[in-house]
Design goal:
- The two termini are 22 Å apart.
- The chain is α+β, with helices and mostly antiparallel strands.
- It has 8 helices and 16 strands.
- Strands 7, 8, 9, 10, 11, 12, 13, 14 and 15 form a 9-stranded mixed beta sheet that branches. The chain has a 7-stranded antiparallel beta sheet with strand order 2-1-6-5-3-4-16.
């Protein structure tokens, strides 16, 4: 495997970061998960836009331009001879001291890994999955804004552990006011009376690229989409439910906290959106091989 590390492609064994990198020591950095389908990188510009928004929010100066990162991402996929891939793009604060002060980090580090990913078991996409609500509350905007896709994912990991302990793959996270925020690695949608609902970004939901794509696909097909605050009651009484994410794509949810959602099977609108999403990923994106 070839990995992009600070301006050059190197072999996997040579791709090493310092133990003094603040990304390792303190989770001080940002990342993006990106997908390539059929020889094209899906929504590459949108992902790199979000990377730069996250960097600005934490006062991290990326040592490459937007265009250079796009080019490096495509080059890394090409070097690994991939047509379908999952890309992890990471920017750390760089090497510093054991102290917390980020001023000790002089050179941010850029890493791009292109490989494969399987977030959930394949059979769940056909039958849908069970999820639970967990006690761990989503980060406050005034603490660590959920809009920042940072390397500090401990909040999500703690919730994921609680999901694992409950015997399920994913968990619903509420915000401090008790409203639904998102899942540990995915945005959440419900369908009620033919309309589509998803928590607002202000509730603690990530500015999901797949989330926005699904909203656009639904609106194009004439489905009304709104973003109100949602409670667990709203989830329990939904006609359909699904989660979205770059890695997960669109995953149907058929049970929440023991309550069967709708018919207990992936719903009609969910299936329609899955088909539309897969059709879109096959024909759009930044070409890898020209």
């Amino acid at each position: 495997m070839k990995i992009f590390l600070d301006g050059k492609l190197c072999n996997e064994r040579e791709a090493k970061v310092s133990v003094f990198d603040h990304g390792l020591l303190y989770g001080d950095g940002i990342f993006e998960g990106i997908r390539a389908y059929n020889g094209r990188v899906f929504k590459l510009k949108e992902h790199i836009d979000r990377l730069f928004y996250s960097a600005k929010a934490i006062l991290l100066e990326i040592p490459m331009t937007h265009a250079e990162i796009m080019q490096a991402t495509v080059a890394t996929i090409r070097a690994n001879k991939l047509r379908d891939a999952y890309i992890r793009l990471i920017v750390t604060r760089g090497v510093g001291t054991l102290g917390l002060n980020p001023r000790s980090c002089k050179s941010p580090s850029v890493i791009i890994i292109a490989g494969k990913i399987q977030v959930y078991p394949a059979e769940l996409y056909a039958r849908g999955m069970d999820i639970v609500t967990v006690p761990t509350v989503r980060n406050l905007h005034s603490a660590l804004n959920p809009a920042i896709k940072s390397l500090n994912y401990l909040n999500n990991i703690l919730a994921k552990i609680e999901a694992n302990n409950a015997g399920v793959e994913e968990a619903v996270m509420l915000n401090a006011d008790g409203f639904v925020a998102e899942c540990t690695a995915d945005n959440l949608f419900i369908v009620k009376n033919g309309a589509l609902f998803t928590p607002p970004l202000s509730a603690g939901a990530l500015y999901g690229v797949t989330r926005q794509t699904v909203i656009e696909l639904a609106e194009q097909s004439g489905v009304k989409v709104s973003e109100p605050n949602l409670t667990r009651y709203d989830l329990f009484n939904a006609d359909e439910c699904f989660v979205t994410g770059t890695g997960a794509e669109i995953m149907p949810v058929v049970k929440i906290d023991g309550r069967v959602i709708g018919t207990g099977k992936p719903g009609a609108l969910t299936r329609k959106l899955v088909e539309a999403y897969h059709a879109l990923t096959k024909v759009t994106g930044e070409p890898i091989y020209k």
